[in-house]
Here is the input.
Amino acid sequence: MRLTEAGRFFLVHVADGIEQLDYAVKTAGMIGGGACGRIRMGVPTTIATGFLAELLHRYRKQWPGVELELFDGRARDAIFLVRDGRLDVAFVAAITEVPDCHSRPLWTESLFVAMSDNDPRADAKGLFWRDLCDDLFLVRYDGTGPQEHDHIARRFAERGLHPKVQRCDVDRCMLLSMIAADYGVTLASEATSRITMSGITFIPIMDEPEPITFGAVWSPHNNGKALRGLLDIARKQATI
Here is the structure.
């Protein structure tokens, strides 16, 4: 007995289908077990230094098969995407209780003002909010810009002052370039202040009552092992 031409064609394509099915089954098993997959996360600050940098470094080392996809947007947008299932976790500043989500404070950072090296105060060891009453604050529309705007307005109102704030439709790098070019000043996290940036000086705000609290927000319906692995590392690394 010998196979016909039609029979040989059938066997070749059945073998291809079985290989693809086997690959799909194995890959699905790896994703389900957390060995590979993807984590989509919202980040509020630099990932070059600080808590997030260390967290992502440890996670990539322990979960090398998981792809990290980062989203840099407003905190409220990131939380909405978590609720909608389009982000797995959002790391946000000034964390509070979030309805329909789990949340946990993880770390704190002191607040700095970023200004041009050409500013006469660039050598100061620290500044007070009243020292900044004549400065133009530049804040982004996206990212932590809205929170920074509210924070500036609140601190000035507590002192009976009115801030000068300009919203800028630019990314983080362009905003810092504007600061270096002496267009104004902006607020910066402690992690950002640790990065050497040409033309920019970071000075601590001495009368800021307490550091900014950062934390994670995630959906209670997200039971992915890759996410649970990330949160386990974050809990062990937490400083608060």
